[in-house]
Amino acid sequence: MNSPLLQREAKSLSERILANQKKDASRIQQAYLAVLDRRAEPGEVDAGVTYIQSLRKKWSQIDEDKAWQSFCHALMASNEFIYGY
Fold it and tell me: Between the CA of residue 59 and those of 14, 16, 55, 81, what are the distances in Å?
């Protein structure tokens, strides 16, 4: 799940999300639609926002791109993406 292909795709998706959306919740919805082909449920949006905020606090020097790349990578590593349920 840490292949160069997956890293590249997560980066590409995060760049599109950051370019197209301004609010975290909208970015999360766009990521879910792109990766899982469905809208995120309210609890998933909350969890995603919490995840992004925790990265912002944990890595004070991290740029926004890296936080969103990590989020996209996590979605692409999810069982739902891999097994398609």
Answer: 18, 22, 6, 27
